Fold this sequence. Notes:
Blueprint: H1 4-12, H2 21-30, H3 37-44, H4 48-58, H5 72-79, H6 81-98, H7 107-128, H8 133-142, H9 145-153, H10 155-168, H11 172-180, H12 184-194, H13 199-207, H14 215-226, H15 233-243, H16 247-261, H17 281-287, H18 290-296, H19 300-312
Helix pairs in contact: 2-6, 3-5, 4-5, 4-6, 6-8, 7-8, 7-16, 7-19, 8-16, 9-10, 9-12, 10-11, 12-13, 13-16, 14-15, 15-17
Amino acid sequence: MLNDSIRVRLESMTQLPAIPAVASIVLQAIDNPETSGVILAKLIERDPALTARVLAVANSPFYGFSRKISTVELAIVLLGLSTIKEIIISLILQGVFARVKNQIFDINAFWRYSVFCGSTARFLARRLGYRVAGEAFVAGLMHDVGILILAEYFTKEFLQIQEHQRKWGVSFVEAELTILQCNHTDIGAWFAEKWQLPPQLIESLYYHHSIDLSDKEQLAHASAHTNKTSTSAQEKVFYLHQEIEQPLTALVALSELFAEELGFKKWANESESTSSLYIPTTLIEQLTSIEMKEYLGNHLQDRLAEEFESAVEFARI
Length: 317
């Protein structure tokens, strides 16, 4: 929980990042089913930087369209609304990242980590049946935005956190709690509320380092389905996914776990210590089973690398 002194300092700051007006309007338009491609294109074209990024992504080698995409309207048709939304959020966050001083910590490594978490959460969402894969990308990309706020606006405390880590060999989250009596999840969720993001996104920022005990009863019910020998891997993960109280948070936590295992989290200076993550035990047991690995793909690491490279196309700094 955000302690009072940190909250007062945050609320007194006048230079905290805000969503640019055009981007905010475009995001609202995307969520409105009555918005046509023509109207959306006109809204995007109000912002030269956003227009340039959308066209750059549409014409990138990754998509490999046979002809040059010269209009935003055509780019929307070819890329789809989810990708357009991901481009906008990525561009907004790049503005937040640009504020952070490189000498405090490796901002480029942190950005690559964030993009990896976004692309991995999206991949897992598609494979595990989460309703909006694009939402999973945004959640993964943004889930540690509180660390950026700390680095830029609480620089003294951020350096103290790093020093506490070096001295005691604890995780970043543990060091935060010692120095601040709260952590980046509290700050990130506060920030997301200011941006008026959807409740499930705010939850994923706030709870991805939490162990929610209320899952136990629900997972016991899920186990009744997953323990049946006749149940397929796809059916098992469907039941688990439906029963987990905060599926988006679980996807984000899983993406961070993969990021750590594949070397994307070195910026955190964590050696043997690992922060707790919102990953219900039953979900881990199923995901690590042989049949589930086959369902997700035997070459999961390669697939995650491909997803990451595609996300990098529109998430460069």
